[in-house]
Amino acid sequence: MAKPWKGDAPVLCLAHGAYDLETALRQQGWTGAAKVFKTKDELMANLADVEALVISGFWTDDILEKAPNLKLVQSISAGTDRYGFDAFRARGVHLCSGQGVNVNAVSDHAMALLLSLTRRVNEAVQNQSKAEWRGMISDPAQREAELEGSTMVILGLGGIGGRLARLAKAFGMRVIGLKRNRSGAHPDGIELRGPEELKALAAEADVLALTCPLTPETRGIVSREVLQAMKPSAFLINVARGPVVDEAALAEVLHAGKIRGAGLDTFVEEPLDASSALWTAPNTVITPHSAGETQYYERNVIRLLLQNVAALEQGGTLVNKVA
C-alpha cells in the first residue's frame, strides 16, 4: 500500500510553547526528522512541507491554507472545539483528538478540588500564610464534610467522568452519571440518567461535577436555573470547559452563599480576568486550567500520534478521529 507521505516517513511538526514533545518522540523510537516550534509565528512561517502536525493552543484554521501537504493533525488536547471540522473535511485532512491522554490527571484533579473544599484545605493554606491557628467549630454544618453517603452527580460520563465516578464510589459516595446513551447497566454501579434531568438532579446533588465536552448542547447547560436549584450545602466542580456554566450566575450564587463552594479549573475567558467576581467568591478554589497537566502528557500524546501515523500508512482505523 502506498504511503500517504512524500517520503518514507511524514515531515513531522511539533508545535507547543511548553511541552518537550521531541524527547518523548525519540524515547518512543522515532528516528525521522521532526520540526519543533515554540511560537505561533515560527510555526506559521514553516508550514509549507509539513505532513503531520502535533498542536493545540497554536491552532487556527488558516494553518490549513498554509500547509498544502498536511495529512494529519494530532491535537494535544482532548477538546477540539477550536478546530473547524468542515474545513478539515473539505481539504481531506485527518483530525484526531487527544482524548484519553489525561483521563487520570483530570479525574484526580477533580477529586483534589472537592477534597480541598470538603476538608477545608483551601482555608488552611490561607491561614498558614498568616500563621493563624483556627479554633474548633461549634456549628456542625460549618465543619469539614465527609464524602461517604453523599451524592455526586456527574455531567458527562466519558473517560474522565467514568474514572471520577469510580474514585467517588471508592469514597463511599452515591454516583449518578448523566449521559445521552444510557443503554445497558453501568459496570461500576453508577446510576445512569439523561442530561434532561440535570435541573432536578442538581437539587439532589451534594456535588455537581462537570466533565463533559463543550458542544452546542452543553454550552450554557449549567444555567442560572440549574445553579439556583442546587442545595446551599452543595459544591460545584468544573473540570470540563468554562462555557458549560453561566459564569455570571455562578459568581452570584457563590457570593450570595446559595451553594457552599466551587472548585473551578476552566473559565469562559482564559486567563481569568483580574476583575472577575470569581476571584473573590467565598469558599472557591481556582486552578489555571491545569487539571490536564501531568508529567506523562508528552508520552501519552506521542503514543497517540505514532498509532495514527501507522494507521494512515497501513489503511487502519485512526484513534480518536473527529474529522
From TrEMBL:
Matches recorded under InterPro entries: D-isomer_2-hydroxyacid_DH (IPR050223), D-isomer_2_OHA_DH_cat_dom (IPR006139), D-isomer_DH_CS (IPR029753), D-isomer_DH_NAD-bd (IPR006140), NAD(P)-bd_dom_sf (IPR036291)
Record domain D-isomer specific 2-hydroxyacid dehydrogenase catalytic: where: 33-322
Keywords for this protein: Oxidoreductase
Keyword Transcription in annotation: no
D-isomer specific 2-hydroxyacid dehydrogenase NAD-binding domain span: 111-291
CDD domains: 2-Hacid_dh_1
Oxidoreductase is among the record's keywords: yes
Pfam families per UniProt: 2-Hacid_dh, 2-Hacid_dh_C
Family indicated by similarity: Belongs to the D-isomer specific 2-hydroxyacid dehydrogenase family.
Protein name, as recorded: D-2-hydroxyacid dehydrogenase
